[in-house]
Amino acid sequence: MVDHTYLQDFKYKTKNPYNDRLGDFNDFVFCGEQGEALRGKWNQDVFKRKAPICLEIGSGYGHFMMEYCEKNPDINFVGMDYRFKRSFALAKKLDQLTHKNFRFLRAKGERIGFLFDENEADTLFYFFPDPWPKTKHQKKRLFQTHFLEIAYKVLKPGGKFYIKTDHDGYALWMEKILDNQKLFNIDLKTTDLRLEHPAHFLSSFKTKFEKIFVAQGIKIKAFELTSLKRECTHV
What is the pLDDT of residues 164-191, one digit of tens each? Predict the structure, then answer.
């Protein structure tokens, strides 16, 4: 049974004081249905330039988002998170940046198919999501077969999907799903990223959570996926 969050008539909850406060940053923050109204228009109407679109699902405190945007001025970066207070805290930090090659969504990861059109995104990032470790809660995990199908749809042919997690159980869950799909090639699968692949892109930075995990001696599990979608050709 598909979670109602994936359905067309899903409605966002807005009864939180931080929802109104996010309006102070409406030049780069879009909440809920505001973001979904921009589907298919990100380069043309929002960024007003043609550039690769990178989407981070669950930007958290924004460390990766801010660093990656600064180092890659030629990309259009869309960060997203669902928690009100954390989104507001990140918006305040983003507002101070001199480079403006980003936008932020207060939105749910399950909704990326309503936020982005088919083939609209070039890269997806999904770092250290809530693992929902209890068996009765695992249905709440974002990484499911249905979500993977949506990720495949919004990504361009050859698009990349990068994933990192500290949680052994969630990594095994992801691996099982990936082993039973034909949408993505698994370019990287590791249970100890920094030991096995120290020169890989995913080892080149640490999120706030990742620093804590590494300091505790927790091994970082990671995946690099490439869409197997083919370019459409017209005769």
Answer: 999 999 999 999 999 999 999 999 999 9
Give this prediction's pTM.
0.95
Does 49 score more than 60 pLDDT?
A: yes
- Residue 185 tokens, joined: 């090639």
How confident is the model over 65-99, as pLDDT tens digits?
999 999 999 999 999 999 999 999 999 999 999 99
Contact 11, 88 (CB under 8 A): no
Does position 2 have pLDDT exceeding 70, yes or no? no
Instruction: Give the 3-state secondary structure of the chain.
Output: CCCHHHCCCCCCCCCCHHHHHHHHHCCCEEECHHHHCCCCCHHHHHHCCCCCEEEEECCCCCHHHHHHHHHCCCCEEEEEECCHHHHHHHHHHHCCCCCCCEEEEECCHHHHHHHCCCCCEEEEEEECCCCCCCHHHHHHCCCCHHHHHHHHHHEEEEEEEEEEECCHHHHHHHHHHHCCCCCEEEEEEECCHHHHCCCCHHHCCCCHHHHHHHHCCCCCEEEEEEECCCCCCCC
Domains of the chain are 4-227 (3.40.50.150)
